[in-house]
Design goal:
alpha/beta, Rossmann fold, GMP Synthetase, Chain A, domain 3, 14 helices, 24% strand
Length: 516
Amino acid sequence: MNHDTVIVLDFGAQYSQLIARRVRECKVYCEILPFNASLDKILEKQPKGIILSGGPASVYAKGAPHVSKELFELGIPVLGICYGIQMISYGMGGKVQKAAKREFGLSPLKIKDHRSLFAGLPSTLQAWMSHGDHVTKLPAGFKVLASTANCHLAAAVNEQKRIYGIQFHPEVVHTEKGTKIIENFVRKVCLCRPTWNMDAYEKTAVHQIREQVGNGRVICGVSGGVDSTVTAALIHRAIGNQLSCVFVNNGVLRLNEAEQVVAMFKKNLKIPLHYVNAEKQFLDLLHNVSEPEKKRKIIGRTFIRVFEKAAKDQQRKKGKFDFLAQGTLYPDVIESVSVKGPSAVIKSHHNVGGLPKDLKFKLVEPLRELFKDEVRELGERLHIPYDLLWRQPFPGPGLAVRLIGPITRLELDILRRADAVVQEEIKKAGLYHSIWQSFAVLTPLKSVGVMGDERTYENVCVIRAVHSTDGMTADWVKLPYDLLGRMSNRIINEVRGINRVVFDITSKPPGTIEWE
């Protein structure tokens, strides 16, 4: 069926994808377009609502992203978030100025009008602010809906044109009832039907895979993680034996991971798997490489080269391969490169960064528009085992981005053993499936210690554990002290090369989940 659509115009916010995810949580389909998409391109999508994202610019700055004023005359409901409300004011005759007091963090939002956007919400709620500019004069026809102590015009509306603006971020988990605010916009204001779900996505994706591939053959790289496994299962459902899966041991896997992946695909999923042990090839290229982006680029390029060779080996047996399948997700794309807007680059991911210009395969990326929780929901429909489906995310570059500093085989082995302790103890405590990610990081820092009667000078290990729903934001997990104590004691006693263990209590933002 055709789904009602909401468009997010990206003005450079790191959370543009998160806005889209929140809309989808309301069972409404959502796409992201760059801020400078033409009106024809926007109307081609037949949107029932448009959301203007936040962004780091000032509306008056040279080169600042702007939209056509005609956007506000289309008769389509608009919601401007942060920079979005400033863009509405700028485009419709209001005023925007530097705030006397910038607002960053939570502020009490006092709601003055509980119709439409704030329907069903309390009179005061905590809202996440992040702005230096603010609207000082609303355009004609607008009225104030909500205020904070430092921002009188924190929310406003032109009821006749159905244009709303808010100076806070409802999409982040920190804002109380934030998803409800977005739901009110897409359901009560835009009147969108709640028809978007993974049942519909699966049917569409299967059709699109069949249409793209035709009679061609697909080679799919799998790691044993959720993304690549769901990718393989979905493509296998679409084209059956036209798919061949390859698992590459890149040398930066966790303890005993290669053996576990091979057994899982053959015994549980019943999908044929070709195993390539390229550990030496990867580690020779990574030896003593310290710079995080260089690690990712090496792994990405080598991954493709190994795949090309594996494809040649397989095509001698099964026929030529035309496509390479990858488990690329929305967060991979937005954090790697701004493909749909001016969002700042945080880091590249191996799935979308470092691909060579002479890539000999066409890409099949059926999960590219999904978030992790949507992928897991899709995986349930594909009957993937629970333990695999709820396996914690593991980065494509593996332990290379958890080993801070130069890559060596010795340090990798130390990290593997420390990480195995963390995994074992988290599972024993019954916390594994309730935590988004928990793992060990090995730092190049060394500290003095005493073991027995001898002085030691060895590495510092970090334990990292975070709660998240989609990887875009995360809070550190308040692990029990006794659990932290057991992990620390075991790592120091069982892993030679570590004499100090610390616990990371940084959330995202301002940090990232991984250290590199």
